[in-house]
Amino acid sequence: MTFQIKDSVAFVTGANRGIGKAILEALLANGAAKVYAAVRDVSSVEPLRQAHGDKVVALEIDLTRPETIAAAAGSASDVTLVVNNAGVLKAASALSDDAIESFQFEMNVNVYGLIRVAQAFAPVLKRNAAAGTGRAGAALVQLNSVASLTNFPDFATYSASKAASYSITQGLRAQLKPEGVDVVSVHPGPIDTDMATDAGLHEMAEPPSLVADAIVEALQNGQFHAFPDSMAVQIGQAYASFAENVIEAETEEAAAEA
Q1: What InterPro entries would the database entry show (predicted)?
Q2: Nearest to 83, CA basis, from 170, 192, 211
Q3: CA pair distance 218, 141, nearest whole angstrom
Q4: Predicted structure pTM score
Q5: For the chain, N or C: smaller number of CB within 10 Å?
Q6: 232 closest CA partner among 146, 143, 142
Q7: Which tops the pLDDT comparison, 32 or 194?
Q8: What is the pLDDT of residues 72-111, one digit of tens each?
Q9: SS3 144
Q10: How far apart are the C-alpha atoms of 249 and 257, rounded to whole Å?
Q11: Which pLDDT score, from 0 to 100, does residue 251 have?
Q12: What is the pLDDT of residue 145?
């Protein structure tokens, strides 16, 4: 059974702009009953609340502060879909003077933040899946990157952090699937966001709506991997055989043994 977005209750980190905002709007357009917009500054959610009314609920969250994640999980106890979209990027190569500091910063958000979100929300998702709160179980979506599959030298530390988050996502899939919780790993290329602009990737960036649409499709079709944009599709096609025969096969086997 695949996850049904209609009537679901979602929780989206970094939902006030860019990809997160596109995801929130796509979920509502596909019938989500409510979306918690989890952001560091709750006042930034006000335009979304004005546009969508009570279907958008602002919650404070900072992926570097575990107490805010725990509090959000307590407040959003009706959630059936968690989308961990928030992430950071530093333009640092392995030989940059600030490579270690950049890597530590990215790991704290991109990897430890994912683990913190998963640990806080896995009990909520499992409970609501078992109780039938969601029409078809529950789901966790993690925004990874094409950089999780190949290292871009100018963004070496970011690529390494995303490779780690992708690995954690694989482990989460194997653990949560037997509990009725689907997991989706999303691998965008350059997307038209503030992050892409700051990284000098604006000219090749594509619309955030592509990511949102890919997430909707992956949830509806029970897919683990999602490759939204032109660069992502190209890399995804090259990666497809390994993904199917190694990554997805191993997690399916692990889920069956759990």
Answers
A1: NAD(P)-bd_dom_sf, Sc_DH/Rdtase_CS, SDR_fam
A2: 211
A3: 10
A4: 0.93
A5: N
A6: 146
A7: 32
A8: 999 999 999 999 999 999 999 999 999 999 999 999 999 9
A9: coil
A10: 12
A11: 58
A12: 97
147 with 155: CB under 8 angstroms? yes
Distance CA 117, CA 38 (A): 11
Would you state the pLDDT for residue 164? 98
Q: What is the DSSP letter of 211?
A: H
Q: Give the length of the chain.
A: 258
- How far is residue 220 CA from its own chain's centroid? 16
Q: What is the mean pLDDT of residues 40-57?
A: 97
Map tokens 């025969």 to a residue. 245
**DSSP secondary structure letter of residue 5:** -
Q: Is 23 left (phi over 0), alpha (psi -120 to 50) or beta?
A: alpha
Q: Which DSSP state fits 244? A: I
Is residue 114 within 8 Å of residue 142, measured between CB atoms? yes
- Short-list 177, 159, 162, CA closest to 223: 177
Average confidence (pLDDT) over 151-171: 97
Question: CA 116 to CA 77: how far, in whole Å?
Answer: 16
Give alpha helix (H) positions in the chain. Answer: 18-29, 46-52, 66-75, 99-106, 112-131, 156-176, 194-198, 209-221, 230-242, 248-257
User: Cα–Cα distance between 172 and 220 in angstroms, integer?
Assistant: 19
Residues in Cβ contact with 136 at an 8 Å cutoff, skipping those fewer than 6 apart: 1, 2, 3, 4
Is residue 69 left, alpha or beta, with left meaning phi > 0 and alpha meaning psi from -120 to 50?
A: alpha
Domains of the chain: 9-257 (3.40.50.720)
For 165-200, the pLDDT digits (tens) are 999 999 999 999 999 999 999 999 999 877 767 767
